[in-house]
Amino acid sequence: MLPKKKSRPGKWIALIIIVLLMAGAVTFFLLKRDSEVYERVKAELSDITTYHSFTGNIEVRHRQTIIADMVMQITDLRVKEGDKVKKGDILAETSIGSKLTADIDGEVSGIGVEENAMVMAGARLMEVVDYRDLKISVKVDEYDIGSLKEGKEATVKIGALNKEIKGKIGGISREGTVANGVTYFTAVIDLGADTALKAGMSAEVRLVDNTAKGVVTIPMSVVRFDDSNTPYVLKEDPDGRPVRTDIETGINNGTIVEVKKGIANGETVLYTNPDKTQGMRLGGQRTNGTAGGGSDNG
């Protein structure tokens, strides 16, 4: 008859230690979870507007560059820098009796010839520029072009003047340009007359993308996402504990987000704020910590 194997105390001690460690880990997790601080915010009705933003420079739409088409002598220079002229006005006469005239209404600019001087063929003599009709050309990504239409209003900010003016889309190119693998189109923003504007000034153009009025909104910071990128929020159950609620979101302006499903106007959402220590603890132990979601009309 074989002798009985003696149990090894070390084996049982190791098992006991493992069990104690697991129990400690679970307890630590529960205590940590129960000590987590929550704040509350209510969903509210707001208006949201989102924009496309582009940058560009102010340009003149109409410019006439007058160039000598042959060797000639300017015998009568009838204009000076800055003169306003009308289409058809005589700008200069040559020794052979030919007249140089303005093809557009505008302002004389960049005179490069003197009276009685001989000029060679191809020489640039002057320009007539219409500073009353200005535009901005902006590059638009192919994925944004669908939301832009001719006649759509734009807000144009001129940083150098600290000024905002209104413009509208006057045209959109029918063919795109490919650069570094990205296709973009050119949209022209008509500005119209403004004596304060100067050609070459940089500008920021904003065009409305989407607008939602009177919709349920919450701060973007309270929305969570799971591993499948599904948005959800935490609500409070009858016992004062947070429960997950999946939501369907709409547009956002970077601060607040539209909620199409999952939250009603006035409902309370729980969230954690690492910058604050007051708030609501699990189990219904509340403090006075609150946060409000603001309305942002863009």
TrEMBL record:
Q: Where is this region: Disordered?
A: 274-298
Task: Report which superkingdom the organism of origin falls in.
Answer: Bacteria
Q: Where are the transmembrane segments?
A: 12-31
Any one cellular-component term (Gene Ontology): cell envelope
Main location class:
other
SUPFAM superfamilies the record matches: Single hybrid motif
Under the heading PANTHER family, the entry gives:
EFFLUX SYSTEM COMPONENT YKNX-RELATED (PTHR32347:SF14)
Instruction: Return the protein name.
Output: Membrane-fusion protein
Q: Which organism is it from?
A: Ruminiclostridium cellobioparum subsp. termitidis CT1112
Q: What is the lineage of its organism?
A: Bacteria, Bacillati, Bacillota, Clostridia, Eubacteriales
